[in-house]
Amino acid sequence: MQQILEKSHISSGELESILKAREEGKIDFLLVDVREDMEYNMGHIKGVDILKPTSTFQQWAQELFESTKDKYVIFTCRTGSRSGQVQQVFAQNGHNRTLNHIGGIMSYRGEVEK
């Protein structure tokens, strides 16, 4: 399970597995949705910890970066594009525990909430 978090990206199947493991207390990470409020309210992955819209990236990025330096952070969005950009910025600035959810919610087959 832990080896999944050692990569720079995660598939929907892997995300579903580690969300279940997190519920069981076997692994710890933060799942951040970077879509906009309207998209999030239409449906989001069950287990998302916080919503941080990319449109307000400049307002929240530094604080999230600083507060999660010692944590694994998985970014997700609709298709993996925006979350990939956010993950890349964090990685380029030295946060080596970030992952991009490849395919985003469009490829996710696990539980979704509205």
Describe this structure in words.
The protein is an alpha/beta fold. The protein has five helices and seven strands; from the N terminus they run E-H-E-H-E-E-H-E-H-E-H-E. It has a single domain, classed as Rhodanese-like domain (Oxidized Rhodanese, domain 1), CATH 3.40.250. The chain is about 40% helix and about 20% strand. Strand 5 (about 75), helix 4 (about 80-90) and strand 6 (about 100) form a beta-alpha-beta unit. The longest helix is centred in the first third of the chain and has 12 residues, at about 10-25. It comes from Sulfurovum riftiae.
In short:
The protein contains five helices and seven strands.
Write the CATH architecture name: 3-Layer(aba) Sandwich
**CATH top-level class:** Alpha Beta
Q: Report the major sheet.
A: 5 strands, parallel
Instruction: Summarize the helix and strand pattern as letters.
Output: EHEHEEHEHEHE
- Distance from N terminus to C terminus (CA atoms, Å) equals 28 Å
Strand content is 15-25%
- Rounded average pLDDT: 96
User: Can you count the beta strands?
Assistant: 7
Radius of gyration: 13 Å
Low-confidence stretches: none
Strand order of the largest sheet: 1-6-5-2-4
CATH superfamily grouping: Rhodanese-like domain
InterPro entries: GlpE_sulfurtransferase (IPR050229), Rhodanese-like_dom (IPR001763), Rhodanese-like_dom_sf (IPR036873)
Pfam families: Rhodanese
Organism: Sulfurovum riftiae
Protein name: Sulfurtransferase
Features:
five-stranded parallel β-sheet; Sulfurtransferase; transferase activity; 114 residues; GlpE_sulfurtransferase; Rhodanese-like_dom_sf; transferase; alpha/beta; Oxidized Rhodanese, domain 1; two-stranded antiparallel ribbon
